Amino acid sequence: MTDKKRILIVEDEKAMVDMLTIRLAKDGNYEIISAYDGQEGLQMAQKQNPDLIILDLMLPKLDGYKVCRMLKFSDIHKNIPIIIYSARTQEHDKKLAQECGADAYIPKTLGQSVLVDKIKKILSS
Amino acid sequence: MIKRRILVVDDNPNERAAVERVLLRSGYEVIQATSGREALLILNQRKIDCVLLDHLMPDMDGLEVARQIKKDERLKIIPVIMLTGRDKEDDVLAAVNAGADDYIVKTSEPDLLLLRIEAMLRLGRLQRELYDKNSLLDKANSDLHKLDMLKSEFVSTVSHELRTPLSITREGLNLVLEEVTGSLNKQQKELLEVAKNNIDRLGKIISDILDISKIEAGNFPIHKSLVSINRLLQKTFLFFKQRAEQKGIEITLNMPKTEIAAYVDGERIAQVLSNLLNNAVKFTSEGGRIIIGLNEGERDIVCFVEDTGIGIADTDLDKVFTKFQQFSKSYGPGEKGTGLGLSIAKKIVNMHEGRIWVESQLGKGTRLSFSIPKYSIQEIISSHIRTAIRNAEDKMSKFSLLIVQAAGVEKEALFNDIEANIKITLRRSGDSVFSYNNKIIIPLLDTDRNGAQIVKKRVSELCQKYISGDKRFKNSAFTYSILVYPDDNTSEDIFIKKIVG
Lengths: 125, 501
Description:
The structure holds two protein chains of two kinds.
Chain A: E1 5-10, H1 14-27, E2 30-35, H2 38-48, E3 52-55, H3 64-73, E4 82-86, H4 91-99, E5 104-107, H5 112-124
Parallel strand pairs in A: 1-2, 1-3, 3-4, 4-5
Chain B: E1 5-9, H1 13-25, E2 29-33, H2 36-45, E3 50-54, H3 62-71, E4 80-84, H4 89-98, E5 102-105, H5 110-177, H6 186-216, E6 225-228, H7 229-246, E7 250-254, E8 261-264, H8 266-283, E9 289-296, E10 300-307, H9 341-351, E11 355-361, E12 365-373, H10 377-395, E13 399-407, H11 411-425, E14 434-436, E15 439-444, H12 449-467, E16 477-485, H13 492-500
Parallel strand pairs in B: 1-2, 1-3, 3-4, 4-5, 7-9
Antiparallel strand pairs in B: 6-8, 9-10, 10-12, 11-12, 13-15, 13-16, 14-15
Helix pairs in contact in B: 2-3, 5-6, 6-9, 7-8, 8-9, 11-12
């Protein structure tokens, strides 16, 4: 019986999800599930109980801020760590990300290797 | 020829008829109104070129009718001549004050009346032309404004749309480059590095274009707070060190050991420095030198970036801050700029009331400097509070000020601790904390009294934790006060008094 960590990726660009999956598969023993819009992401977070969520901000149907806030307001789900991974890079976006309760904020410009480091750090703490 | 249409307003039928006779003889079309109300009704329904208005009328007198006409956006350009019974100063003054364009005594010669009407019609024509041109201008102006908004929106959307494929491409390259998918030979690696560098270059061009379009649309806000320039330089220096050294350039940072703080938007000033350094690294070749420097004058702080690069010709010097000016093109296969970096830097420095200038010698090197004015702590706090009040007014939100008075505490250390802790524990990175006159001043934007109470609770816990168990603070005490705008009838002056007093 392995202790596989389940990671939910909410991101509307399939290529991004695929690349992150390749990187994570190389790096550790994770189970990756993914959603391509905010609504689907929220439902999967509620039903599949992931150990960590990677959340984009600009998503169809429901934006990432709202998904994050809804999860962090719920007693059952508020303990799931959320990393916001977004193309938005301005200080203002960072502030909004913090205010909606996310555990970390990584701009996409930094690249996925920085994201993966953060994932490992959060999952091992 | 179209007949000019005159509206004669008089409650006396005989006088109306007398005026009408004169006007008809001269080829005018005449419309009669027996009261002020009727006159207004007609004016709203028919095109009238001039109004002859009796002063004394029951119910609504001539003065009131004139006032109503001149109050109406559409009607006010119609000339109004007041007919008075007597040639008395009071009457004339009352007529003019009510907005009448001219007056004439009823007993005047018919010729005089006709002359006056002619003059008024000329005036009316000119006013009508002016009015039409103004409306055209207004419309053109609002069209331009809409177009400008559309342009900014377009640029912002397009840059986002461009950035997504760009970051996917970059990720793909990274995966291969980091050999996650298998090992590469040297040549493959080098080629992919070049590809990646050019992706980054494209990314930089996109964000520069986005910034320029925001600046030009006036949508480039500056959020000032007290920032350590030393730390800012250090951070930027470390960021560029590796890149410069990889290129074989020696890079040094020269700055005084004492902390120099300035009231700036730290993120934006870092952007200015990056743009200067970007150019320096780009236009300096192997074996060259780059110096980053900081000088503190009496009135301002000067930062500069000096290089031993290719330099700029005298004839090009005054063009360096103009957008899309590139000079390196004539220098063969070297790196090229976007032609936007210095133009953005200049705009940002100007937004800080600072200056930016260039000294250069072709083939020897370039030195780019910028200055930021120094302000006293009082000026900074005043300005911060002024901005906060304006922000609250604009957004119809509240602004709270939390003041912590500390007695018997080693101020400096406590201040630094509290500032750091507030930023982390409150998760409010946008807030500034000031130390002044034995007080710690915490302006809280977009925060009402409830919010300020929560902050106060956390800050007081922090202060207690800091002094508890430390003998030095045996006699220390804190008092807290909260002022809220606009609830507490506060103004800038009241806030300042509270801080200084």
